[in-house]
Amino acid sequence: MRRLYIPLAWELLFVIATILLPKQSFHLFFVFYLGLLIYYYYFHKQFSFRKFARNLKRIKTFWIPVLVTFVGLLLANDLKNKVIQPVFYSVKDGTISIITRNDILPTFFYALMMIVMKPVAEELFFRKAIIAFGSKKRVFVLTIVSLLLCAVSRAHGLLGIAEWMLMAIPVTIAYVVTRNIYISIMAHVAFEFYDNIYSIVYAVGRILNR
Questions:
Q1: What is the pLDDT of residues 47-74, one digit of tens each?
Q2: Cα(210)–Cα(102) distance, rounded to whole angstroms?
Q3: What is the dihedral of CA 157, 158, 159, 160, to 10 degrees?
Q4: Residue 198: in which H helix or E strand, if any?
Q5: Strands (E), 13-134
Q6: What is the Cα–Cα distance from 61 to 195, expressed in whole angstroms?
Q7: Global model pTM greater than 0.85
Q8: Type and span of the H or E element at 174
Q9: CB burial class (10 A; 0-12, 13-18, 19+) of residue 98?
Q10: Alpha carbon distance 194, 210 (integer Å)
């Protein structure tokens, strides 16, 4: 539990900052994820490139669960965008808008943050650090806590929190079932790449041709 005091306080500061300084959301998200990565990689060694590389060689126990989780993320995203949002179209979901300058360097850092920093930081904190295994009741309660904390970092409104909890369910299930954080990290990275690469390439093309 001691390892959670600092990141929980860090998230509280981040949430307050996004409420007070919504126009600085890009910088706040970048610093938030960077802080989590430094804390869990350098200070608590929760990620190993060597272990990650070993996992990449396993088809049955790594890539198949990654594929299943990725499909789950796609389905959750479709449910959010094509079912929930049309039904509640008149309700503001409170999702934090990430605003960045229309230039090459900010776009590069946006891509780095969304495709690499965000998924790795979220999995190390919201999944590996928070969900502790033991009794089924304990795992269930901590899973709900992890989903809620993850959603609060992305949205302030009740609808938005519910939507982002839904989005986190596939990677959460993957970690609880396999107890392998590298599976949820890889699936999350793959989904963020799929979800962001078109808009990033389009933005770069528009910047270069203006």
A1: 999 999 999 999 999 999 999 999 999 9
A2: 11
A3: 50
A4: helix 181-208
A5: none
A6: 25
A7: yes
A8: helix 158-178
A9: middle
A10: 26
